[in-house]
Amino acid sequence: MTATETNVARALRELRLGVLLAFLGVLFGFGMGGVFGAFEEPLKAGLKADAEAVAATVYAGDAAKVKEVLDKSWAYYKRAHLHGGAIGAAALAAILCIALVGAGPWRLRQIAAIALGVGALGYPIFWLLAGARAPGLGSTGAAKDSLEWLAVPTAGLAFVGLVLALISVAWGLYGSQRVSRS
After folding, report:
1. Are 74 and 29 contacting, i.e. CB atoms less than 8 angstroms apart?
2. Is the pTM of the predicted complex or chain greater than 0.85?
3. pLDDT, tens digit, for every residue of 143-160?
């Protein structure tokens, strides 16, 4: 192993919690895709059963409203799948860049990695839970509102983690250790 490989491996170990959480976000996204392939009809039937259980009370018998919420709930499930893969992959890429550049305060790099990882896993889970709750509540808006405690911090952490990663990488690329142009 070269010195650079050793430094990168050490940097990734220092950022391991963020790496693990980001990988779990990707796994969540991929897993949702597999679940869709294997269980799409039972998932949709479960959402429909939840809506039908409250059709008279929550929906006042409005079949069009039931259909609207069910369609949007399924879209939220797909959004959970896509966000897991995309945010997880972006988080992993940003964490790898932090490790490769290895600049800035250690704590800044670690906070960035953890924030990215929590956002990569938590935000897709928010969309899954919102999709699952909506049929019983009669509204996707109500489902999102009921999970604001999860959505806001995890989306915020993903954003803050990305900003901190940008600062860390910029510090390494444009900081005091400038590369000679000769």
Report:
1. no
2. yes
3. 999 999 999 999 999 999
